[in-house]
Amino acid sequence: MCWLNFITLNSVAPIPNLHLISDAGAGEGLMQLHPTRDTELIVCGKANTLLNGQSFPSPALGNGSVTPAILVHGVFRALQAQGYKIRLHCYQLGLESKPDFSDSKLDDVVTHYCKLGEESELVNKVLIPELQRQHQAGEKHLLAESGIGGTTFATLWLQRWIDSELSFAGSTKDKDKLAMKNRVLAELTEMTASLAKKASSYTSNLSYSDPVQRACCTLLNSGVSELNFAGGAMIFAPIVAMAENINVANISVATTRWVMESRDAKIAAKALPNHCELRTPNIEFYHSKFEAVRMYERGYVVEGCGLGGCLDLAEQLGIPNSTLIASLDDAVTPWF
Hints:
The chain is α/β, with parallel strands linked by helices. It has helices at residues 33-44, 68-81, 119-137, 150-161, 175-192, 199-203, 211-220, 233-241, 257-260, 263-270, 291-294, 307-316, 321-332, and strands at 3-12, 85-93, 108-114, 140-148, 226-230, 250-254, 276-279. A 7-stranded parallel β-sheet has the order 3-2-1-4-5-6-7. Helix 8 (233-241) links the parallel strand 5 and strand 6. The longest helix has 19 residues, at 119-137. The two termini are 34 Å apart. The mean pLDDT is 94. InterPro entries: Nict_dMeBzImd_PRibTrfase_arc, Nict_dMeBzImd_PRibTrfase_sf.
């Protein structure tokens, strides 16, 4: 029996009126529920947490596609069919909502909470010892993020450390929302211009970093044997910012092909330290029978919930792409 540990760092970036710059989430007053509901989709194949008292279990997005969370669920079901055990570790970083994992399809689920600004304490007290236990037990792990607004802070960091012209895809293509996002980014850039170019200068202020960045920086300084990340710009940013202070010998980052089709993502990837391996899966979603899944190949969704890392891991473990696609389609079938 081989256990696969999927660790999701859930958070919402400290951006006022976030619903005005992001298409993720369910709108004003409900944005904090988005990471919680995505984690429920990963675990159960449906979202259980209510929105304003109403049940909306479907993974369908407004653009006709589906959230990456349901596809991660499909990957895990394919791995389980091959005899692997999946344990999900849900870290609610500054989120008050309690996930409802009724009808869980995974083998084990563990949830942890902390208040905003207490991410490092939770990582040091709980996550690092758990990673050490997994290593000693010969278990595998993936560290993913499920957040809203984090691309703004990832861009802030990567512009400071690499190139002020860099830009990264978020959850929206709406011109008004993008304009507002750019204004927020410009304000943050102005406020942080005088800071020392050190990750700690940003993580010490809750307005200049998000919970995922603070958690990742703590992990990178931890001295654990290895860290296997799943994600795009939001994972690149803390690794690049911490490059000279990383205390972990083996680091890998797996993300989707679609993230790496971006010129700016390629520039950011080149700034990763030499001992950080970058991986992308080979699978093509064109073979899905659902347009909602095939839309990924056209850039409607490029990453999220650690999808790229999960697909890459499944390929490493020898799951055929045809089997993976069939399992993704099975996960989506109830909703179309």
